[in-house]
Amino acid sequence: MSLFSLFRIRRDERLLAAVALTVLLLLNALIVWKYYGLLTPLGHRSWNVLVKGFHLSGFDSITYYVISDWHARYNVYRHPLLSFVMYVPYLLNLLLMRLTGINCALFLVAAMLVTSSLYSVIFFRRILLEVIGVRLAEGNLLTAFFFSFAYIMLATMVPDHFAYSLCALLLTLYLSGRMMKEHRPMEIRHTVLLFLLAAGISLNNGLKVFLSALFTGGRRFWHPRFLILAVILPSLALWGFARFEYSHFVWADEKARHEAQAHRKAARQKRQMAQLKAQSATSDTGKMQQRNIGKAMKPKKKRTQNSVSGKPIAHGEFMNWTDISTSRGATLVENLFGESIQLHEDYVLGDIFRGRPVLVSYSTPMKWVNYSVEALLVLLFAAGAFIAIRQRFFLMVGSWFLLDMSLHIGLGFGINEVYIMTAHWAFIIPIAIAYLLLSLAPPTHRKLCFALLVLTLFLWGYNGSLLLSYLFA
What we know:
The protein is mainly α. It has 20 helices and no strands. The protein starts with a helix and ends with a helix.
């Protein structure tokens, strides 16, 4: 399959693409409308405005900053190539800023999100039709169902990396599924290219590419030549590049920022103490004022990673992000299969670092509806997984899911906001349901399709209404 045929939108995909493009443009137009006044003035190009000024759940808007004033500001060990991918949009933004007189990062990011999300729609339906084998109407329904999930919908419109990860992962699934259908192993060049694409965006995606190579290649994956050229050398190269990137592009900036922060803090304290000494008398009242002002000068505690997460397994560069004390049961109900798919009405799209509790329950009067929908989805997912357990393609998708669950639920990486990572795993739910549809007799099949249609309309309406209420508040 050539690149042209891979990315060409076929005749039978044009209607779907037109509908998806319209929805994606509307979703991204909401973000542009919300943040146009804050993010477009040329004088508003600081980190405090472009990153700290964006509030939508726990998503980061570092991309706005990177393509406004290029620096390697992503975590280079988690997103080793993302900063350099954004260098071309940065150069384009420089040109547009000179031509228009405004910062066009908001529009460039929207264009990238719409493009990557549109191909996510295309690749996902191709998986359903060409790999799993559902009918056209069912493929369209399951595609609309998948993109009605709350944090899939959000991934297509927020300036984080998840829309790009979703596109890369679905591309990998589509190509792997086609190779399985044609009984072809994933070649070394395919593995390396997909690894650099997926892992360059988010490092843990690279493990999923290797799992795909294992499921498509079988024993061939363990051949020394394949392991060395397709797995070991690319991994070492990407990790070495991340170390190089940190030492040459990140460390000096981090050191300068920390020194500047310390200097500003010391200067501020010095000015405050000088003012205090000038105003304070030697009387008891003056000493009491001095003590009170001294208390006021102490920095206020912020909601840091440690204050919103549980006890880590150990302390270290990566192990600090683990969590062994947060309730797994409540996380599964309220966050993994809850917030990921249906937003909570309380603290809607709140950030755990800005006041949202880690665990939020659904509130009345919609409580019984939300939990019923969640229970039905989990039941359909489990039934589909049971039916598809012998399918090689589903086993591969399941291995991806188990990898994510081991990291997030097992070790607790990012468990405090696990719903943020929905784009990395949630496609397994409609894929499992697709296998369930194939196994049903016509009467039951029609009833399930009708139930999926109702669920899809409900999720689009429910999540969409809460999203609009947040953005227009």
